[in-house]
């Protein structure tokens, strides 16, 4: 909306959203519990305030039920809307394996999910199992531990962030988590979760062990809901396929950005490129000159105070990592292809040498 309004003050814009439309910074969800923040603290601007400021029609708590590219109709629970241009920014939803029933697991992917977890933990220290050792799981596990809860981090891999980090870095992260009091359980698979008579959650592990906790948080990745895209005939490959320069989909008049898209067959689920995507999309939708969006691997920063991690570039899963420096405070590594640096990695505190 911001990018469109910056180009055209009079363009009629309608925002359809299943939530209230309140504006907040999503990365703060994984550090807010230990800061003692509430949902109200995280909201930077209410949906109604933002709508008035930008001059848009807001349809909050409204769900899309269908999309017909011809004759350009969007069906919602509050009626059918006609459009000239349509932007899909519907994000991605947590991917819950069958072993993690929705009724027994929290998912922290939006303010509503985070608020529910916060309320469930409001009575004091609790036993919490976090399932998944990716970025979200690692950040939430630390945040929960710093907020005073007893945290078990359950991961299928030998060390956290195994799909992103070389083993030397992953082992450092594992040691840092345990030093904070997180009970990290590597190489385990969850076979199921149920609730016992006392209201506790019983996590059944594949090896037969049972872990009794108060709450379970699922951090097992994201998936783009394909229903709307397929109904409208949009190309879909793990996300809504868009042109890498204009963010246009395969159907004229429909654009997409954010967590729901795929560029060159790869999902693009990062916060950092959103502003650049929005600027390029707005120019393309309004047919204004613009060099277009240029997708590049964003800098990945793990928001863990115990052990900050920064990854830059596009790592090659088949290339070797080389240690540049290694001491008790910091680990520096990089991948090279000839003279070209593919990726760099910084693990720990301190400042990297020039």
Automatic annotation (TrEMBL):
It holds the Pfam family Pyr_redox_2. Its cofactor is FAD. SUPFAM superfamilies: FAD/NAD(P)-binding domain (SSF51905). Gene3D superfamilies: FAD/NAD(P)-binding domain. Keywords: FAD, Flavoprotein. Residues 7-264 form the FAD/NAD(P)-binding domain. Belongs to the FAD-dependent oxidoreductase family. This is FAD-dependent oxidoreductase.
